[in-house]
Specification:
This protein is of the alpha/beta class. It is 32% helix and 19% strand. It has six helices and seven strands. The chain has helices at residues 20-26, 28-46, 85-95, 113-122, 163-170, 189-197; strands at residues 5-10, 52-57, 76-79, 99-104, 128-132, 138-145, 177-179. A seven-stranded mixed beta sheet has the order 3-2-1-4-6-5-7, with helices on both faces. 36% of the residues are buried.
C-alpha cells in the first residue's frame, strides 16, 4: 500500500472558479461554502493514509495557496496544465510512479480514508477500480500503472452519464475491474439537497 499514489484534481473554492454548475442552482456564496466543505473533507481523507498524495491544482496561480491549511504547505503540488480533462488526467498518469494510482476529485463529501484503503486493496487483486457516482460518472478511478499501461481517458464523454462506461470500455478486454460503493458527487443543487436528505 505504501507504493500507492493518490492524485487529487481540485480548484480552490472561489466564487466563479469552482462549482459553477452548482452555483446556478444554489447561488455563488452557497456554492463557495459547499466547495470549501467538500474540498476539506476530500483533503482530510487523502492525507490520512500511507500513500503518496499529489495535488493537481488549477489554475496555476493557485499552486502556492494553502487555503487556511486545507492544502498544507508540505503537500506535493503540480499544475493540471492546459487542455481538456483527458489531457490533464493523462498528465497525472504519465507523472505517476508505477504501482496503484488513484484519481479523485473534490466533489464527494462521503469519501473516507477507509474507502481509499479499500481502493488500494482492490488494486492488489484487480487491474482497475471505480468508485461510481449515481450520475454515471465516478468519484474515484484507480489503475495499476505498469511500464506499458495505456491511458483509458481518450474519447470519454465527461460530465455526463457515460463517463464511467467510457473509461471502462477503454480498458483492455480482459481487465479485471473492482467496484466501490456508489457515492453522491455534488455537481448541482439537487445533488446537495439529496446528500443532506441522506444524512
Amino acid at each position: 500500500m505504501k507504493n500507492a499514489t493518490v492524485l487529487i484534481y481540485a480548484k480552490p473554492p472561489r466564487m466563479g472558479l469552482a462549482k459553477t454548475r452548482l452555483a446556478s442552482g444554489v447561488g455563488l456564496t452557497e456554492a463557495r461554502r459547499i466547495a470549501h466543505f467538500t474540498l476539506a473533507r476530500t483533503m482530510r481523507a487523502a492525507l490520512s493514509g500511507p500513500w503518496k498524495t499529489v495535488l493537481y491544482a488549477a489554475p496555476d496561480r493557485a499552486l502556492s495557496d494553502t487555503l487556511g491549511g486545507i492544502w498544507p504547505s508540505h503537500l506535493v503540488r503540480r499544475s493540471q496544465g492546459t487542455g481538456n480533462l483527458t489531457d490533464r488526467l493523462n498528465r497525472g498518469l504519465a507523472d505517476a510512479y508505477p504501482g496503484p494510482v488513484l484519481f479523485i476529485g473534490a466533489d464527494a463529501p462521503d469519501l473516507t480514508p477507509a474507502l481509499l484503503h479499500q481502493a488500494v486493496r482492490a488494486l492488489n487483486r484487480h487491474d482497475a477500480v471505480f468508485g461510481p457516482a449515481r450520475d454515471g460518472g465516478f468519484w474515484l478511478f484507480g489503475i495499476n500503472k505498469r511500464a506499458r499501461t495505456r491511458s483509458p481517458f481518450a474519447n470519454v464523454r465527461w460530465s455526463g452519464p457515460h463517463a464511467m462506461e467510457d473509461v471502462w470500455s477503454n480498458l483492455s478486454a480482459d481487465a479485471s475491474v473492482a467496484l466501490l460503493p456508489m457515492l453522491i458527487d455534488i455537481d448541482e443543487g439537487q445533488d446537495w439537497q439529496d446528500w443532506n436528505e441522506s444524512r
